[in-house]
Amino acid sequence: MLPIQSNGYSVFFDTDLGGLKTLLAESNYTKIFFLTDINTSEHCLPVIKKYLPELDTYDIIEVDPGEENKNIDYCIGVWQNLLDFGADRNSLMINLGGGVVTDLGGFAASTFKRGIDFVQIPTTLLSQVDASVGGKTGIDLGSVKNIVGTFAQPKAVFISTEFLQTLDQRQLVSGFAEIVKHGFIADKDYLDKLKGVSPENIPAEIIYHSIEIKNHVVTTDPFEKGLRKTLNFGHTIGHAVESYSLKNDKNPLLHGEAIAIGMICEAYLSHKYNSLSEEGLNELVEIVRGIFPDYKLSPSMYPALIEFMKNDKKNTSGNIGFALLKRLGECDYNNYLEEDKIVESLDFYRELVA
Questions:
Q1: 56 and 127 both lie in a single domain
Q2: Domain end point (choices 134, 166, 198)
Q3: 128: left (phi > 0), else alpha (psi -120 to 50), else beta?
Q4: CB of 82 closer than 8 Å to CB of 33
Q5: From 155's CA, which of 121, 165, 245, 303 has a CA 20 to 30 Å away?
Q6: pLDDT digits 0-9 by tens, 129-165
Q7: Rounded to an integer, what distance in angstroms lies between the CA atom of residue 123 and that of residue 166?
Q8: What stretch of H or E contains 121?
C-alpha cells in the first residue's frame, strides 16, 4: 500500500519498518529515544529490534500504561529523562505505543527545548486509525481529557499490523469504535462493508481506508476550525463517560467502549435535534450494540457527567458542543444543546440497556 500523505509527513504501511530504517539512515540525529510503556517495551520493542538490528544506540524512556498516567507528572518525568540523557534539539523521539504514549510523547517532544523531532509508531488498533494522523498531542488535567496539548506534526508515522498481534480482544474491539465512527460520519458504503468485519481479524485494507478518511478531514482542516469537528461525533458524551469511569470504576472503560456509548447518545440527539432518521438511529444502535458491551448508567451519575461535558474543549461561551449526524455517512458540527436535552439522550441509553 502506498504511503498516505498528510500535513507535511507520510504515513507508511510498513510491516518490516523499512521506511523507518530509511529515515534514520538519511537523517543525522545526535541521539535517539524510544518512549514506551511497560507493555510495549516487552512486546513491541523486540519487533523494532528484529527489523532494525543495526539500530543499537538509543535510550529508552518508559512510562506506566493507562489513560490515568497521561498527565503532567509523567510528562515532567519524560522531560527530565530527556534532560538527564543529554537530549539536544537535534534528537529524535520515537513514540512506540498506543494513544497514551503517542499523545504524551508527541506533547513532550513538541515542547522540550521548544520542540524536537518525533516519530509515531502506533501499536494499538485505536491509535493506528485515530492518533496516527492529525498532529494532535496532549495530556489530561485531572479527569479532563486532552485539555492541555499542541498541534505538532511528526516526521513520519509507521503502521505495522504485526503489532496488533500483541493485543487482546478487548483492545481490538475498543479500537474498532473509531473505525465505525469514520463510517458513521463520512462513508455509508464503508459502514456497510464493516458489517462483515470482525474486530479481532481486521484486514489491513480496512485500517488503510479508515486512515484515509481521517486524513482527508485533518488535511482539509488542520486546526479544527470546521470539518475536523465532525471527528468529535460520540466524543462529547463519550469522553465524559470515559472520565467518569476512570474516576469511579474498578475496571474502567476503554476509550472505544466509552465512545460507543457516546455515539448512541449523540445519535439520539442527531435524530431529535438534527436530521438523522429514526431508521438511521435504529441502524446505528444495532451496529454499536452488536459490537460493544453495554454499560449501566444511573441518573445519580448525570450531574458528574454534565460537569465533565462543561469542561470539554469543544465548548464555546459555556455552551456544550456536539457533532451530530445528518444521516449515516454525513455529519455536521457546531451544534449546541441545553442540559435537559443531553439528559434525554442519557435516559435513552439507560433505558435501552436496562
A1: yes
A2: 166
A3: alpha
A4: yes
A5: 165
A6: 998 899 999 999 988 889 999 999 999 999 999 999 9
A7: 9
A8: strand 117-122
Contact criterion met (CB below 8 Å) for 99 and 124? yes
For residue 323, the SS3 value is strand
Residues 101 and 246 in one domain: no
Which of 132, 125, 131, 129 has the alpha carbon at shortest distance from 156? 132
**Are 126 and 221 members of one domain?**
no
Q: CA torsion, points 84, 88, 94, 99, in degrees to nearest 10?
A: 70
Same domain, 123 and 260: no
Please tell me the total count of domains within the chain: 2
Domain with 105 in it: what CATH number? 3.40.50.1970
CATH of the domain at 287: 1.20.1090.10
Phi-psi region of 166 (alpha: psi -120 to 50; beta: other; left: phi over 0): alpha
254, 168 Cβ separation under 8 angstroms:
no
Q: Which of 145, 166, 187 is the last residue of a domain?
A: 166
Locate 21 and state its grid cell: 530504517
The reported pLDDT for the residue numbered 63 is 97
- Within the chain, which residues score under 50 in pLDDT? none
The string of pLDDT tens digits covering residues 43-101 is: 999 999 999 999 989 999 999 999 999 999 999 999 999 999 999 999 999 999 999 99
Model pLDDT, residue 255: 94
Residue among 25, 195, 35, 8 nearest 102 (CA):
35
Exposure pattern of 128-156 as b/e (b: 16+ CB <10 Å)? bbbbbbbbbbbbbeebbbbeebebebbbb
Domain containing 324: what range? 169-353
